[in-house]
Structure formats: structure tokens, C-alpha cells
Design goal:
Helices cover 27% and strands 30% of the residues. It contains nine helices and 24 strands. The chain starts with 42 loop residues before the first helix and ends in a 28-residue tail after the last helix.
Length: 575
């Protein structure tokens, strides 16, 4: 029997154990000892460098800027403690568990919350890391010469080739250079193998504006942060005839930055002499009762200066060195006197009332008399500028004091002032008090007009002695306000430059061949520039026309390539 020999296909080796059968495919590069190719590790330094590059990219900066705008939305939707603490507490009381959740998330102190601060700081770092390298690159571009003329201009926008018999290359090049210089191009004449060329560039202000915008944005962030650390803001309520001195003890509420120094508060005082309000009256255009104007006449005193009378209006604040005073609100302050059964005056003077929010200025009255005998007394009710009492209860029909009235109920008992827990001066807990009854056993409803007095069965008296008005002011100072304004204006200017200044390059090449000058013109736009092709052709046409005796009459006076061929049209761009 003859011996048969067989040959094994090399591909069959892949099915042998250890030869890559696990992968189910054949490979010409079998694994060595069954080990796979190792992927190099970035390491700590590489990872940090990668994260830094991601953070300082322009895309990340834009995303963070958008997040900052979104994060600021709750600050306009929900009351903020730093602006209106009373309204914030009212919102919490009305919304229960939902309000507690929002409070825990910092929605009532948005601009000082950790999450808002984190986005703010990341945006700040991202912008700095993005801007610094770009500034260096841009400065090099400003000092650099225009780029060399490409060898093949046929690839570029508006390429035009013109043959000019008998023309000199030097004359054409010099004419092209002058024309481009008049159009505010940076130019550079270069010698080439078979001729000469002019390379020109314009529009670097586009990148300058872009950088100015981002630098100004950093300036806004710095000024906002500096203002929040060094500024202060306080609210004060002043009744007609009373005054205010700028000290911490005089404020109803006060907020200041972490770096604020109390000794830097300006020394000034003012007296509210008169408050005037006008409303839409019946028969006039508009909704009856809508406010027309609010004006507060104040007498201002500052050290070293004469006293002056000023009028503060809405959106027309009073400025003194180191502070600005804004008119926030107003209301009525009826003069009420309460005596206990022993004849002792236990409460008197103008009382600040809180408007309920209706058009008629119905206002809540809360007066506490903890020294009354034999029991502590509270007077609770409403002040009605133009009052009526009907089936809807006590209410005011018009906000002006046409028919002022008080609708009151007297309570006696424990006011809870001895518990040591701070209480709101404009609220009272009626659960620990009992309404003083009348002869029929029902709580007495007292209705008083100015000058009237009412005596209860136990000898307690309540009198309505007069009426004054009060005004609420917001006094604030931010030393970085001007910096914010300047930075914002610079940002707007930089944005305009980056949007409306086109960046472009133009090249003009002239070669001599057998007594003929070959003129080539082309351009390149670094951004959207629809007029480039027209301007390139117009430049070529003007150069050719100027050297064959057909130069337009106004060509010498026009500085723009397109202007000389298109009837004086000029493109609004600059270097």
C-alpha cells in the first residue's frame, strides 16, 4: 500500500487549543501566552490634564453659562430671605411640607446656595482657563505678518485671472498694495519665483471682540462676587414726622456680605416729612383705585453739608455718599390709644398697619398691650381707608383716606411674650386669648372714626386719635455697581465686534511672461462673508482697468475694492 501524505491548511491551526479558538475567529497574530494587548493608562497626571482641558473648553463654558441662567430662575420665582424675609416665612407657612423641601434645597437663598456657588466658580475657572491661552495666540497673530500667498489660488473664493499685455508687475503690485491699505488691510509684499505677490488680511477685531466679550464676562462675575461679599442692604419703615439714622439698630432687617465692615457705613440721617399717593379716581381712564404715583418728601442731613429736601419716588432713588435709598412700599399708620380699666395708658401712638393686598388697601391692625391690668390686652382688626361693613365683612372700597375707619376687636389673656420665643410684631396668637364680650355675650366689634373713643364694659377704652402715613425704604450699597455696568457695556461692545466684523484674506499675484503681466486675485473668508467673491472680482477689475486706461473717475478717492467698481459701496468691517 502506498503511503499517503496530507497537508494541513494553516487556517486549521486556529482551532487548536491555545491558538485563539476561544475568540471563534482566526488571527494571523496569535496571542502570546494567551495575554491580550494592554491599553496604556493615563495615570493621575494624564487624568487631571484631561479633566482640565474638558473644563476649560469653550463648549463647557457655554454649558456652565446656560446652567447658571437656569439655576437663577428659582431666585425670581420664589421669595428670597435676603430680600423679603416676611414673605419667605409666609410662603413656608402656606406650603407646609413642600415649602420645607424647597427650603432644604436652598430655593429661598438661591444666590448663596452651595449648588449655585459651585456652578458660579466652575464657570469662573472655565472662562479663565479658556481665555488666557487664546489671548496669547491672538497677540501673536496681531504681531505676525499676513500669511504667504498660496501656490494655487484657483482653490479660493472669487479667483480671477487677467492677462495685461505690456504691463509692469511692479506697478500692478504697488497699485494693489495701496488699494488694500486704503481698505484697512494689513499687507505684505513678497518676492516669488516668477513674479511678486501681495498678501493681505483684515478682521482681527473679530477675535479681539470675542476675547473682550469673555474677559468682560469674567469681570461681571468678579464684580458680582465682590459685591455680594462687601455690600449691605437693609429695610426700614418710617412714619411721617419720624426720622432714621443710618445705624444697625435702626433697621427692621439687615443683610451684609461676609467682608462688610460696620465702620464703613455712611453717616447720614433723614426725616420723612410727607408722603403722597395718587390713585385713579372714578370717571378717569384706568381701573379705579390703581396707583398713579408715590412720592416721599425727606429732609436729608449728612456731615459737613447743609440739610436738603429731596423727593424719593419709585425707580427714582435718593443717593447719598456710600448708600442709595429706594422707595419700596407704603401704608397707613392710625394713631390709637388704649387705656386699661385702671385708666392707665398701656398703648398709644401711630401704629403701622399691614395692607392685605386688595385694591382698597384694607390693612390689618395688631396692637399688643402687655402691661395692661388685670390681663394683657390685644387689639386686632382692620383699618379701612374708605371703609364699609357689609355681608362681606369689613373692607375698603378705595385706597385713599376718603372715609377712614377702624374695625376692631379687643382680646384679653396671655400674649405669650414671656416665653422667650421671638414673635412677629404684626401677628398675635388668639388661641391663648379671649374676646371681650358685650352686653349680649358676643365679642364686641368696635367701629371708630377719627376723633372717636369706645369704652368696653370693663372700663378699657380704645380711641382713634388721628391718621398718618408711612413709607418703607430699602437702603443699599454695592461698591462694585459701576464695575458691573462697565463690564456689561464692554461685553456688549465685544459681542457686536465678534458678530459684525468679518475676517478675510486677499491675495494678489502678478507674473510676467513674454511681455504680458498675468494678474491673479483670490480671497478666503474665515467666517460667513457673502460679499467676498464680489469684492475680489471688483478688485481685479479695478486693477486691470487702472492699468489699461479705463480707470473710473472716482477710483483714486475710494478706499474699498468693491467701492471702485460698484458705485461707492463699502463693507462695514475693520481690522
Amino acid at each position: 500500500m502506498s503511503e499517503r501524505t496530507t497537508s494541513q491548511d494553516p487556517r486549521e491551526k486556529s482551532a487548536e487549543p491555545g491558538a485563539g479558538a476561544e475568540s471563534g475567529r482566526w488571527s494571523s497574530k496569535p496571542e502570546v501566552d494567551g495575554a491580550r494587548a494592554a491599553v496604556p493608562s493615563l495615570g493621575l497626571r494624564g487624568t487631571l490634564l484631561f479633566l482640565w482641558r474638558q473644563l476649560t473648553s469653550m463648549q463647557t463654558a457655554l454649558v456652565l453659562l446656560m446652567l447658571l441662567a437656569v439655576a437663577a430662575i428659582p431666585g425670581s420665582l420664589y421669595p428670597q430671605r435676603s430680600v423679603n424675609p416676611a414673605l419667605t416665612e409666609q410662603f413656608l407657612d402656606e406650603n407646609g411640607r413642600w415649602g420645607e423641601i424647597l427650603d432644604a434645597l436652598g430655593f429661598f437663598e438661591v444666590f448663596s446656595s452651595p449648588w449655585f456657588s459651585a456652578i458660579y466658580l466652575l464657570l469662573f475657572i472655565s472662562l479663565i482657563g479658556c481665555i488666557v491661552p487664546r489671548v496669547g495666540v491672538h497677540l501673536k497673530q496681531l504681531r505676525a505678518k499676513p500669511p504667504r500667498t498660496p501656490s494655487r489660488l484657483t482653490r479660493f473664493t472669487g479667483y480671477t485671472r487677467v492677462e495685461l499685455p505690456g504691463e509692469q508687475a511692479d506697478a500692478l503690485i504697488e497699485s494693489a498694495r495701496r488699494s488694500l491699505r486704503r481698505s484697512r488691510y494689513r499687507t505684505e509684499v513678497r518676492e516669488e519665483r516668477n513674479g511678486r505677490s501681495v498678501s493681505a488680511e483684515r478682521g482681527l477685531l473679530r477675535e479681539t471682540g470675542n476675547l473682550l466679550f469673555h474677559i468682560a464676562l469674567v469681570g461681571v462675575l468678579v464684580c458680582v462676587a465682590g459685591g455680594s461679599l462687601t455690600s449691605y442692604r437693609g429695610q426700614v419703615t418710617v412714619i411721617e414726622g419720624d426720622g432714621f439714622s443710618n445705624s444697625l439698630t435702626q433697621y427692621d432687617s439687615f443683610e451684609a456680605g461676609a467682608w462688610f465692615d460696620e465702620s464703613d457705613m455712611p453717616d447720614f440721617r433723614f426725616t420723612l416729612e410727607d408722603f403722597r399717593a395718587t390713585y385713579v379716581e372714578p370717571g378717569e381712564s384706568g381701573k379705579v383705585g390703581e396707583p398713579r404715583s408715590f412720592e416721599a418728601d425727606v429732609q436729608v442731613s449728612t456731615p459737613g453739608q447743609e440739610d436738603e429736601s429731596r423727593t424719593v419716588q419709585v425707580n427714582k432713588p435718593l443717593h447719598v455718599p456710600g448708600a442709595s435709598m429706594y422707595l419700596l412700599g407704603n401704608g397707613y399708620a392710625p394713631e390709637i390709644t388704649v387705656t386699661d380699666p385702671e385708666g392707665t395708658v398701656v398703648a398709644e401712638g401711630p401704629l403701622i398697619t399691614v395692607p392685605m393686598g386688595d385694591v382698597g388697601y384694607t390693612s390689618q391692625v395688631v396692637l399688643k398691650a402687655p402691661d395692661a391690668q388685670p390681663e394683657q390686652t390685644a387689639v386686632v382688626g382692620f383699618f379701612l381707608p374708605t371703609g364699609t361693613i357689609d355681608e362681606q365683612g369689613p373692607r375698603s372700597l378705595y385706597p385713599d383716606a376718603v372715609d377712614p375707619q377702624l374695625a376692631l376687636t379687643v382680646y384679653q389673656g396671655d400674649l405669650g411674650l414671656d416665653s422667650g420665643v421671638p414673635q412677629n410684631a404684626y401677628e398675635v396668637d388668639l388661641t391663648t386669648l379671649t374676646a371681650v364680650p358685650g352686653e349680649d355675650g358676643d365679642p364686641v366689634l368696635i367701629r371708630l372714626y377719627p376723633g372717636e373713643e369706645y369704652e368696653l364694659a370693663d372700663g378699657t377704652t380704645v380711641s382713634f386719635d388721628g391718621l398718618r402715613r408711612y413709607a418703607a425704604f430699602d437702603i443699599a450699597h454695592n461698591p462694585f455697581e459701576r464695575g458691573i455696568l462697565v463690564s456689561a457695556l464692554v461685553a456688549v461692545g465685544g459681542l457686536i465686534l465678534s458678530l459684525f466684523v468679518p475676517r478675510r484674506r486677499l491675495w494678489v499675484r502678478v507674473r510676467e511672461a513674454d511681455g504680458t503681466a498675468v494678474l491673479e486675485v483670490a480671497g478666503l473668508a474665515r467666517s460667513d462673508d457673502p460679499a467676498l467673491e464680489t469684492d475680489v472680482k471688483a478688485l481685479a477689475s479695478r486693477l486691470a482697468g487702472a492699468h489699461d486706461g479705463n480707470r473710473p473717475p472716482d477710483a483714486a478717492s475710494s478706499g474699498h475694492p468693491a467701492a471702485d467698481a460698484d458705485g461707492g459701496h463699502r463693507e462695514g468691517s475693520a481690522q
